[in-house]
Amino acid sequence: MPDKPTLCRVHFSPDDRAAEVERGETVLAAAQKAGIYISSLCGGDGICGKCRVIVRSGDIQSKPTTLLDRDEIRRNYVLACQTTVQGDLEIEIPPETRLEEGQILGDEDAERFGMLSLVEAAGFPHNPVVRKYHLKLEPPSLQSPLAGHERLYQAILEHEPDANLQTGFAVLRDFNRILTATGYEVTATIGRRGATTEVVQVEPGDTSASNLGLAIDIGTTTLVVQLVDLVGARIVDSEAKYNSQMKHGEDYIRRIMYAEQHNALDAMQRLIIADLNELIEILVRRNSIRVSDITCAVVAGNTAMIHFFIGLDPTGIRKEPYVPVANSIPPLRAAQVGLHINPRGILYTLPSVAAYVGADITGGAVAIRLDEQTDLSLFIDVGTNGEVVLGNKDWMVTCSASAGPAFEGVGVEYGMRAARGAIERVRITPDFGVLVQTIGNRAPRGICGSGLLDLLAEMFRAGILARNARFDASCPARRLVRRDGNLEFVIVPKDQSAVGEAIVITQADVSNLIRSKAAIYAAIATLVKAVNVKIDDIRHIYLAGGFGNYLDVRNAITLGLLPDVPPERIHFVGNTAVAGARAALLSEEALARIERVARMMTYIDLMTNPKYMEEFVSANFIPHTDVERFPSVAGPRTGTAGSG
Amino acid sequence: MPDKPTLCRVHFSPDDRAAEVERGETVLAAAQKAGIYISSLCGGDGICGKCRVIVRSGDIQSKPTTLLDRDEIRRNYVLACQTTVQGDLEIEIPPETRLEEGQILGDEDAERFGMLSLVEAAGFPHNPVVRKYHLKLEPPSLQSPLAGHERLYQAILEHEPDANLQTGFAVLRDFNRILTATGYEVTATIGRRGATTEVVQVEPGDTSASNLGLAIDIGTTTLVVQLVDLVGARIVDSEAKYNSQMKHGEDYIRRIMYAEQHNALDAMQRLIIADLNELIEILVRRNSIRVSDITCAVVAGNTAMIHFFIGLDPTGIRKEPYVPVANSIPPLRAAQVGLHINPRGILYTLPSVAAYVGADITGGAVAIRLDEQTDLSLFIDVGTNGEVVLGNKDWMVTCSASAGPAFEGVGVEYGMRAARGAIERVRITPDFGVLVQTIGNRAPRGICGSGLLDLLAEMFRAGILARNARFDASCPARRLVRRDGNLEFVIVPKDQSAVGEAIVITQADVSNLIRSKAAIYAAIATLVKAVNVKIDDIRHIYLAGGFGNYLDVRNAITLGLLPDVPPERIHFVGNTAVAGARAALLSEEALARIERVARMMTYIDLMTNPKYMEEFVSANFIPHTDVERFPSVAGPRTGTAGSG
To answer: Which of A135, B68, B367, B575 pairs as cysteine with A155 (C-beta 3.0–4.6 A)?
Structure first.
């Protein structure tokens, strides 16, 4: 029998993109080659069940899996990572598998969350890290024979008498030609580099009105780039996209392993840089600006993402004793990492505290002015890890809990990120009917973090979920049904759903979510005990993260995610990482404050803390094993009344 | 008639080197192409008469010149720059035209002049600008999870608690691999860059015993590179060569014009860099060292040479208002100018004061500890320009006089640089016999600066020269002869000379030398008057420059080059520029002192100073028009007695 052709063509719909791959390659690899991003939490290990695709025609081989049910198998569903190409294929990517651009926190969102006012009203002096001065120098004469370089310094020092000025080689070789060609009227761009202030560029004439910077948040899932007018102190535009690294694993520990196993540190860096440059290009074109006017960028992100971005080996982050290469990255030239801004533009990276408390947290803490608070305050950023900071202007303790990505929609059967078609608000009526609101008012495709939080709290109030976070089989709700012997709750029936089937939440989903909230609550409780204060001493709680655009803080308390304090003390603050980067862009003092916060934060390791495990176990109830801690939370409306 | 071949082969003896050039090219260009350096003061304008060569065979065209006499023309002498190649040629380069490696001030010379003791005993703390620390770091653990970068900083800060540490991109990406591979035992090299201290490199193990630097003096004529052991604070080796830019003019004003006219700034820079790299390679090979162990270089030189070296446009130096691009060059990476040391090595350039007072003077002033003197002191560096500094620890004034290169052997018929065969000492016996001593005890080829100084003073004492610096025709000396009606003095008769003819000094030569000494004396006198002090207030006079190895300071007074102070106040200090660079290499404090001296020096422009011209005219006598200023100088031994 002759060999089948070695190269096979794999065509994907509805994208209408194709790739040629060798026979034996996985369908996941073929999709990556075709430039299609498929949801893949486990990075191709066949354990997350996210990469479900439909084989329309062609020859495949597929490993057995428990992650597809009999009905799905009949409809030709396979896991793309567990299926090899054996001939030309037609593959359909169902909506739930698609990595679609989400509803990402941009500037409108920042405004909506009051972030602009938080930052711009934060009392940071308006003093951008990179500044332009229009200088009219006196030309040299016999009476005033000062050299060009010293003449330039003298003029800059009139604006900043205390600066330790430095000039790089390229500017040194170039500035005098510009001085003489323009009759000594130039614009000098200067920026802080540690203890010195660098002359970044010298331009002819007066360009001082046009000085732009980028505030960048490198999230594990989402990259956000905001274009900021450093003169007017306003956001010009904002753009975001998914992190292309996601094809190598949805959490960063898997990506670190991928980079190690495939010697792919450089490749992983290039993915981030290419993503950012794509966003920058969109911003530059859309706003008709000159790349050379972007003189700086400030980057926030978790420690692992910062390592990938700079090209530092992240291995230490995932291995005991969990030590990064660097927490503080010195200011670099943006061109050194390949960022397409002014070739001499400066790249500032906000400092991290530890392997699991990154630049997103230090920047966020200053963005919400935690370092100005005289009152005890709590800052929580919920993501795949839940980072918690407790403190005030004098001290801060911080820790990171492995919350898991359930509130990001991962590990939940119909979970999804806060993208169009995601259910973001849920209300259960007294007769157990369900009202949902989706992002973009689309037909529902799944449910995102804020929707899941609402759903769990509402199911608890309605008596569908018991205190132990199990479905109450005795509840008369019609939507509480059994499938394969297990109870599940139908959020959206098949005929109203966009995915051709009912959108449900299973007991396993609920358990994942409860473990997430328990991890975060336990982290909070452990910190509070570690510094010997009481929950009620906490005057402000700031909740940040990618839940979606609206979060019901009352429901967060009901669920036991947040401690039971008066709701007016709780503020949902959106993407504080990019707000921190923006604050640093606009104010040297903010950057200095972020650096100070990074030094003052005391890191408490939860993995080696026995108290944390006790707290975690106790928190696996709604709201908590110890109901005394949640006096305001009533029990289910039906069934026995709550004790509080 | 057929055209002659377009390409002609020009062969040079005794070098046995050849070049092919187009017909019509000059013989000077052919020599340059063949890699032979021919003496050429005027840069090819046909006015200095230095590029004399002999046409052995072949077809040439030569412009008429008054710079060759009939006898020379008969012997087929031509001026290489005024002669074009018309066919294949055989050219002989006579000894006097050859640019031969000289007797250049190296380390032995420094020792001989007490420079080592001057610098090393100068009380500079031994604290090299670039330092190595052997660090044994505690590896990270759960109890001590400090990140690698911060761990490294912590260890360095134990040595230097006040440092503002910075790390460059290359080191940042590399150091952690080295830390972990070596079990956290490394050597960190750090160096000052302005207000920050940079981590220059991190090496495995302990390399702290091997840290080398280069002290470089870029002279208009001579380049000196000293290899310095920064740990042992000693000179390892030294090498020197002529500046290859000399083929484009012997003084730097001509070279600046050449660079402008031929758009040759980059080419001029490359010549210096190639010369320095050649010297570095010799030093590296001869001492079997690793290039990577050379972690820094400190460069001194006049302002024009520094501009060429860095690649800054020197045009402003030669044009009113005589303003350089930069007096202070920030620390650069040596690789940025192409210097072949450690690729991350730092290049420090000593600061200049003005277009005509350069880094050789600021470095030299600190090398001789002028900035520590409580007494009034005078520092004179005699070269093509004569730079003078007057002052003490509290103030300094400086100026530069266009002395001309006569004391460097240029503009004097048998003048030459302090190279082998140069007459360096001269004594005239009572019966008008002449005793000479040559460098290397070779047959005399010409006479260098120290020899010329001796010769003039001795001719004056012997009554051969009158006070007005004219030959005294009534003097009975047999060696005072007439040629073409003009008096000249025979120093070495033809049969004892290495150049096939008598070595003489003409009235024109004497006049050039007297103008040089007058320019320097007038500069001294102008400075003294400008600050309203008296000559006798000057407690120390330091005379630096390329006169040769021995200089009779008494003769310098007799001639009126130096003011009439007790000879014990006068010190001949050799090459102070390279001594200044070496002091900065070995001591951050010395570098800081040089920077302070550059700021504190007040520059006085002589060109716009009417007093200077008066002084210059008065100084065109031996020792001076006003003999009252030189009470110790007796008149000629013969003839009427001096006024005493």
So the answer is: A135
Structural domain total, chain B: 4
pLDDT at A80 over 60: yes
* Residue numbers in B near A348 (CB within 8 A): none
The H or E element that residue A272 is part of is helix A265-286
The string of pLDDT tens digits covering residues A421-454 is 889 899 999 999 999 988 877 889 999 889 999 9
Q: Identify the domain containing residue B387 by its residue range.
A: 360-405+514-629
What CA–CA distance (Å, rounded) separates B418 from B408? Answer: 8
- Name the residue among A148, A311, A322 with its Cβ closest to that of B173: A311
Distances (CA, A) of A327 to A318, A575, B153: 15, 21, 12
User: Torsion angle of alpha carbons B33, B34, B35, B40, nearest 10°?
Assistant: -70
DSSP assignments along A460-519, one per residue: HHTTSB-TTSSB-TT---TTEEEETTEEEEEEE-GGG-SSSS-EEEEHHHHHHHHHHHHH
Q: Does B142 touch chain A (CB under 8 A)?
A: yes
B263 to chain A nearest CA, in Å? 14
Count Cα neighbours of A635 within 13 Å in the Cβ-side half-sphere. Answer: 13
**Which chain A residue has its CA at the smallest distance from B150's CA?**
A326
In order, the DSSP letters of B27-51 are HHHHHHHTT--B--SSSSSS-S---
Residues A238 and A352 in one domain: yes
- Interface residue of B144, B173, B601 to substitute, partner A, most A CBs within 10 Å: B173
- Same domain for A426 and A289: no
| Residues with pLDDT less than 50, chain B | 1-2, 100-121, 639-644
Is the pLDDT assigned to residue A108 strictly greater than 70? Answer: no
pLDDT of residue B42: 54
pLDDT of res. B535: 94
Domain stop point among B144, B169, B204: B204
- Asked if residue B249 belongs to a domain, the reply is no
Is residue B407 classed as helix, strand or coil in its secondary structure? helix
Kindly list the distances between the CA atom of residue B408 and the CA atoms of B37, B419, B454, in Å, as whole numbers in the listed order. 17, 11, 14
Q: Using CA coordinates, name the residue in chain B closest to A317.
A: B147
A25 lies in some domain: yes
Q: What is the pLDDT of residues A553-566, one digit of tens each?
A: 899 999 999 999 99
d(CA B138, nearest CA chain A) in Å: 13
Name chain B contacts of A172, Cβ cutoff 8 Å: 310, 312, 326, 329-330, 332
* pLDDT tens column, B76-108: 999 998 899 999 999 998 876 765 433 333 334
The reply to whether ipTM tops 0.95 is no
Tell me the pTM. 0.80
Residue A152 has pLDDT above 80, yes or no: yes
Interface of A with B in 454-483 (CB under 8 A): none
In angstroms, the CA B490 to CA B478 distance is 9
Q: Check which CATH number belongs to the domain holding A177 and give it.
A: 3.10.20.880
Q: What are phi and psi of A489, to 5 degrees?
A: -115, 130
B346 occurs within a structural domain: no
Shared domain for B197 and B136, answered yes or no, is yes
- B438, part of any domain: yes
**CB-nearest partner of A321 from B141, B310, B605:** B141
Residues A387, A528, single domain; the answer is yes
pLDDT at B4: 53
Distance CA A372, CA B581 (A): 50
pLDDT of residue A113: 37
- Contact status of A493 with chain B (Cβ, < 8 Å): no
What's the one-letter identity of residue A173? R
**Are A176 and B150 in contact (CB < 8 Å)?**
no
**Cβ separation of A145 and B193 shorter than 8 Å?**
no
Whether the CB of B150 is below 8 Å from some CB of chain A: the reply is yes
Determine, for residues B326 and A164 on separate chains, whether the beta-carbon distance falls below 8 Å: no
Contacts of B166 in chain A (CB under 8 A): 193-195, 330
